[in-house]
Design a protein that fits this description.
This protein has 8 helices and 19 strands. The protein is α+β, with helices and mostly antiparallel strands and 384 residues long. The strands form 4 sheets. The chain has a 6-stranded mixed beta sheet. The protein has a 6-stranded antiparallel barrel with strand order 14-17-16-15-18-19. The chain has a 5-stranded antiparallel beta sheet with strand order 5-6-7-4-8, covered by helices on one side. β6 and β7 form a beta hairpin.
C-alpha cells in the first residue's frame, strides 16, 4: 500500500505568539511562516520574485511585528544605552534613530538593532531574532543604573518601495512629508496611536508604523491596504533578494555571537576613542589591533537560478579545495540576472574577483567574491 505524503506544516498554537496583524496576513494570502522572537513571522505571500518586483517598482507593506521592541526608561537610560553598545551616541537627539550593535565582553555580537530615542529618558531597541530583552535585563541588575527595561505594546508594520513616500503622504495628509531619514515621531492614524519612523529592513525607501495598541492591528492593516491600492500595493514578507542586494544582514542567518563588528564590516558602529566604558571595549581594542581572520563578503554564483534560500550553511572553498568559510543566504537577482549571496570567508580570500567553489547540496558551484552592496539602500522619499 502506497503511503500518502502529507504536506509540511507549521503548527499554530498558543505557545508561540501571534502578531496583531496575524489574521490580516492569513486573509491576504500568507503561504508560510517562521518563528522569530517567539512570534509567527510571514515568509511568503505571492513568492519572493513577485514580491521583490513590487518592492523595487511600487509599494509594499507587511507584518514586521516580530521585531519585538525593548523599552529602556528611567533617569539613567541614556547612560545605560551608551554602555550596551560601542557606537558613539553623543549626538543622539530626541527623535533620532540609530543603527547599533550590542556586543558582549569578548566583542562578540549579541544582536544588531535599530535604536529610537523618543524622549529624554525613553528609548526603544528594535532587534533581530534573539534574547535581547533578557540580555539587557540581566545587565541592568548589576549595573548600578536606575533603569526600567520591559517589552512595550509596540508592533511595527513596514511600508517599503519607491512609492512608499506617496502612500505615507496619502495616509497622513502630508503631515510627515518632512520626516527625515532615520528620524521618528509620535503620531496617530484614524485615532490609532503609533510612532512613525523612516526606518526599515528592505533596501528600498521604508517607513515603519510602530503600532501602540495591539487590539487595533487588523484595523491599521486594512487602512494601509485600501490606501495602497492606488499605488499598486502588495502585501509581502521580508524579502531575501533585495536584502542580499543591499548587503542588509540578518542575525543568526548571516552572522552570530561568534563574530565581531570588524568581521562583518560594521566597524563604523564602533568608536574606541570614547571617554566612556561600554561592554566589550577592551576586547574590541585587541581585535582591531590584531586584525581579523575572516570577513563577510558578497558572492556571485554561476549556474541555474537559485530559487530557494539554503536550509544550512554551504561550505566555501578556494580553487585548490582549501576550505575558506561558509555561505549563509543566496538567491537569484532578477535585476542582476545573477545568483548572489553572502558569505564569511578567510580574510586573505576576501578580495573582490577572487574565484571560489561553493558546495551546494546538489553541485559544486563556481563563484567570485563581489563588493557589497550591489544596490545601496534607497533614502529618497520620491515625493516630487
Amino acid at each position: 500500500m502506497k503511503e500518502t505524503k502529507l504536506p509540511l506544516l507549521i503548527g499554530i498554537g498558543s505557545r508561540v505568539r501571534k502578531s496583531p496583524y496575524f489574521d490580516s496576513t492569513i486573509k491576504y494570502g500568507a503561504t508560510g511562516f517562521t518563528i522569530y522572537n517567539r512570534m509567527y513571522l510571514p515568509t511568503s505571500f505571492s513568492g519572493p520574485e513577485k514580491e521583490y518586483l513590487s518592492l523595487v517598482n511600487d509599494v509594499t507593506f507587511g507584518d514586521f511585528a516580530a521585531e519585538r521592541q525593548v523599552e529602556i526608561s528611567g533617569p539613567d537610560s541614556y547612560k545605560f544605552v551608551r554602555y550596551i553598545n560601542p557606537r558613539n551616541l553623543e549626538k543622539c537627539a530626541i527623535g533620532d534613530c540609530k543603527y547599533i550593535i550590542l556586543t558582549d565582553m569578548n566583542g562578540g555580537i549579541v544582536n544588531d538593532a535599530c535604536l529610537l530615542r523618543l524622549e529624554e529618558n525613553k528609548f526603544w531597541i528594535s532587534p533581530g531574532d534573539g534574547d535581547v530583552l533578557s540580555w539587557l535585563q540581566g545587565i541592568s541588575i548589576n549595573s548600578g543604573m536606575d533603569v526600567e527595561i520591559h517589552e512595550p505594546d509596540v508592533s511595527p508594520l513596514q511600508i517599503s518601495g519607491p512609492k512608499a513616500g506617496k502612500l505615507i503622504q496619502k495616509l497622513f495628509n502630508g503631515t510627515h512629508d518632512d520626516l527625515g531619514y532615520y528620524k521618528a515621531r509620535e503620531t496617530s492614524l484614524n485615532n490609532i496611536p503609533m510612532v512613525i519612523a523612516r526606518t526599515g529592513w528592505s533596501g528600498e525607501l521604508s517607513y515603519e508604523l510602530y503600532l501602540q495598541n495591539r487590539k487595533l492591528g487588523d484595523e491599521l492593516f486594512e487602512t494601509v491596504y485600501e490606501a495602497a491600492k492606488e499605488f499598486n500595493g502588495r502585501v509581502i514578507a521580508p524579502n531575501t533578494i533585495r536584502t542580499i542586494e543591499g548587503g542588509l544582514l540578518s542575525y543568526h542567518s548571516d552572522f552570530g555571537r561568534e563574530h565581531n563588528p570588524y568581521t562583518i564590516g560594521l566597524d563604523r558602529l564602533v568608536d574606541l576613542d570614547q571617554d566612556i566604558d561600554f561592554i566589550g571595549k577592551e576586547a574590541l581594542k585587541k581585535i582591531k589591533k590584531d586584525g581579523v581572520t575572516e570577513k563577510l563578503v558578497g558572492v556571485e554564483i554561476d549556474g541555474d537560478p537559485i530559487q530557494k534560500v539554503p536550509e544550512n550553511f554551504w561550505p566555501v572553498f578556494d580553487v585548490n579545495n582549501n576550505k575558506l568559510g561558509r555561505l549563509s543566504r543566496c538567491f537569484f537577482s532578477p535585476r542582476l540576472k545573477r545568483n548572489i549571496g553572502l558569505a564569511i570567508i578567510k580574510v586573505d580570500s576576501a578580495v573582490p574577483g577572487t574565484p571560489l567553489i561553493i558546495e551546494s547540496p546538489k553541485a559544486h558551484l563556481n563563484a567570485q567574491v563581489h563588493e557589497l552592496p550591489w544596490f545601496p539602500a534607497e533614502k529618497s522619499t520620491n515625493l516630487d
